[in-house]
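dumping this here so i dont lose it
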């Protein structure tokens, strides 16, 4: 009897152990850490007026190294749905990038509430020309300038790069004796095909930006879509996206077109990252790492005495 009673007991022990084995928990997503601007001691922040319009004075905010030398430069184009000015939100990212060996700058372009498209694009082009006009005092190598931006700024960064060297997109802004070309760009969390994104619906921000729906003026939306202008010889573009972001319509198709045109491109998706990931840690730090590597590859290192 004792032996027979022991048999079910021996069988039950491993079954009980299997039933009570704890299930591994998935790693928790990192917590949002808000960032505030703080100009690094190694740089000074300068403000330069680009152009004064009745509706807005377009300005550049430039982080200039205190040390002697000549630096490559990166222009940031802020987001905000084309209708909100978010320069301060991008400052922490550009402060960190400046410390990696760049002059960094931000442009306060005209918003959709102040002037319709293509005013914002023309202001971005004018900002690049302004940087070259002031290159000596800002310690910039005018031959080594790139641009980057997120959300609406990502759209404008992609469009600025894709139309680099195309006279029809320059506008009539100041410093017309200077070029607005960029050598490389970064697009973060931004739609690159505005026709595909807006043809079947009315987007209030786009309606304000363009003054018409996509159904009414598809040619306008197409001309403002970076994907339209992909061609051989255009600047290389790195795409950075958040895993939880959805603003990426046309990105995959644009990358395919770029590869077909032998233009370098790449994609990084940041784990757990929301929209806009570049304004908070840990994703701002990851973004700066990626941006520094990309721009060092295409713009190079500073030239120090």
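and the seq i came up w/
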């Amino acid at each position: 009897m004792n032996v027979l009673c022991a048999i079910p007991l021996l069988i039950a022990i491993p079954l009980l152990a299997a039933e009570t084995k704890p299930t591994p928990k998935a790693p928790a997503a990192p917590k949002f850490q808000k960032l505030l601007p703080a100009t690094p001691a190694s740089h000074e922040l300068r403000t330069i007026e680009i152009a004064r319009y009745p509706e807005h004075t377009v300005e550049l905010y430039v982080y200039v190294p205190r040390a002697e030398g000549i630096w490559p430069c990166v222009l940031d184009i802020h987001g905000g749905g084309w209708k909100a000015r978010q320069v301060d939100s991008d400052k922490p990212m550009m402060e960190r990038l400046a410390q990696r060996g760049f002059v960094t700058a931000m442009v306060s372009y005209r918003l959709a509430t102040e002037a319709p498209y293509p005013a914002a694009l023309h202001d971005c082009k004018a900002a690049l020309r302004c940087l070259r006009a002031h290159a000596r005092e800002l310690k910039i190598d005018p031959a080594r300038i790139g641009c980057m931006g997120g959300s609406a700024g990502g759209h404008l960064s992609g469009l600025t790069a894709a139309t680099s060297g195309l006279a029809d997109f320059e506008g009539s802004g100041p410093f017309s004796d200077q070029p607005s070309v960029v050598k490389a760009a970064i697009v973060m969390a931004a739609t690159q095909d505005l026709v595909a994104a807006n043809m079947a619906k009315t987007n209030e921000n786009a309606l304000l930006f363009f003054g018409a729906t996509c159904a009414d003026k598809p040619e306008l939306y197409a001309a403002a879509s970076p994907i339209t202008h992909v061609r051989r010889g255009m600047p290389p573009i790195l795409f950075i996206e958040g895993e939880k972001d959805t603003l990426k319509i046309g990105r995959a198709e644009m990358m395919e077109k770029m590869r077909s045109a032998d233009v370098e491109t790449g994609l990084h998706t940041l784990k757990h990252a929301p929209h806009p990931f570049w304004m908070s840690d840990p994703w701002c730090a990851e973004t700066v790492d990626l941006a520094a590597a990309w721009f060092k590859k295409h713009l190079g290192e500073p030239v120090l005495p």
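The chain has ten helices and ten strands.
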